[in-house]
Amino acid sequence: MGKGEELTTTKYLIHAQINANGIVEKPDVVGAVFGQTEGLLSNDLDLRELQRTGRIGRIQVNIHSNSGRAKGDIVIPSSLDRVETAILAASLETINRVGPCEAEIHTTKVEDVRAVKRQQVVNRAKEIYKNMVESVGPASMKMIEEVREAMRVHEISEYGDDRLPAGPSIHTSDAIIVVEGRSDVLNLLKYGIKNTVAVEGVSVPQSIGDLSKKRTTTAFVDGDRGGELILKELLQIGDVDYITRAPKGKEVEDLEKDEVLVALRDKVPTAQFLANNNILVESDKKDSKKQDKSRKKQQKVQEDEIEDDEVSLMKDMLKEFEGTNCGAILDEAFNMTKEVEVEDIYEEIKNIEGTADTVIFDGVISQRLVDVASQKGIKKLVAFKSMNIVKKPQNIKLITIN
Q: Which of 5, 10, 42, 400 has the fewest Cβ atoms surrounding its Cβ within 10 A?
């Protein structure tokens, strides 16, 4: 059998150490291995027959002498299965003489050659992926963003007879976000938020008022006087469940991604918002009906459900990790604080220090991950699927695509 053939068929390498009470050479060791194991095991594991049929390779011996004693290493390539290889490795330790000398052989390990090769493949793949990412320069990234933004413009939809600018999910989503204009819709689309509709002016169309009575509605207005005027008009003709607004002096269309996410996360019930901001709205005896509607809607929302806009954003972010075998730890504003590898995800969560809001990764949510994430105060786990979740703590939400 040639050396190339031996390398391609080897599954395991048996490593052993030899100590002899005298000077011995390589042929003495090889002879002892064959001679003293002969007849010890079944015919199926006879070393001479195994070597003749190519199921074990050439026995490699590296031995040296010092002060009248010999010490060295033995390596035996094996294409047997795991159990047979282990038996063969153990049989080496029955050898007590090599040539004329007393000797002792100790098996140190059995190395899985395929596992080593797999690790080499993984490490090389990581290098290749890193080079691919690094090769995308600023100009390329700008081009990619331009293409993505152009695609999002094509996603914009229309709602009602007034043909109001809206996100593509406005017709199907249980929760909607009402904004001021087309530019606001486009900006939120840029960040993956698709359940929006614009009122297009201070005079809110009746179709928006009617829609707000059927859906869980969030008003997302500019942080100026105009935003307050639109909010008052909307509250008079529709039923608004939550209100949030852009930072003072800013408009929704100009907000960065983290500002949008913080604003939507910090939305408050309408009554609380009006009280906190000393805003008075004319009432036509709809207050009690609004309260009943709000209570019914809240009963329909399960404790572990996240609003559609946030879920949509999380799923879009997850797709960026698909096929990478990586993930990320995010803060409350969904900024990445650390990139992690999926194989290390448990230890990374376990060793989190400080505040972390979300863990998103290219993998499967297990009960073990849920438990450690809950202990560390993680609020959301985002992955492609979950498996065998028997107990889900109240303080954590699971978001999956499959």
A: 42
